[in-house]
Model the fold of this input.
Amino acid sequence: MTGPQSLTIMNRSVPSGTHICAFFSGPAGRDDVVMPFLADGIRAGHKCICVLESLGPADVLARLDRQVDLGRSVETGQLELATPGDAYLRSGTFCTDDMLSYWQQAAAAAQGAKGSGVLRATGEMPSVLNHPDGRTEFFRYEARLTGVVASLPAVIFCLYDLQRFGAEVLMDTLRTHPMVVVDGVVHDNPYYVDPGEFLRGPE
Done:
């Protein structure tokens, strides 16, 4: 099934195939962006994936259940909850190619399942990668992900807690996402850098 050309994210219509980052501060800020994002997806019949390090799957369900009737969304596979170890670090180390394949397979599964055919996914950067070598590889992945998502019936929503990460992480986040959520509002990102330019690095 072919997905829609646009989706509504925080009251703004965004194109299918969009890679977005969201900045927030602390657990309450995280819940304010994550739970409505997932609840809207469940109501719309989207395949939803949530990969959080700061909140376990049972706690995600408890919070989400206050906003939407979950029904059989977990049993049917419409809602999939994972930890970074389940998704980003399945082989024990982070691998960009593995992660890009993960999202491509998830989008293909969404298209093959009952529902809208759309993948709506959200995840946090694993704290284990918050060191120079890990950050470099992770943001190379983020840059490449923009191009991969563009061809998919999907929206990928990447989460960054201002209380957990420093200025270097935040600047690379802005450089690798075409759209950004700040204070609950979706903006076009003026700091976004074309993936090819970002991957070439400084000359």
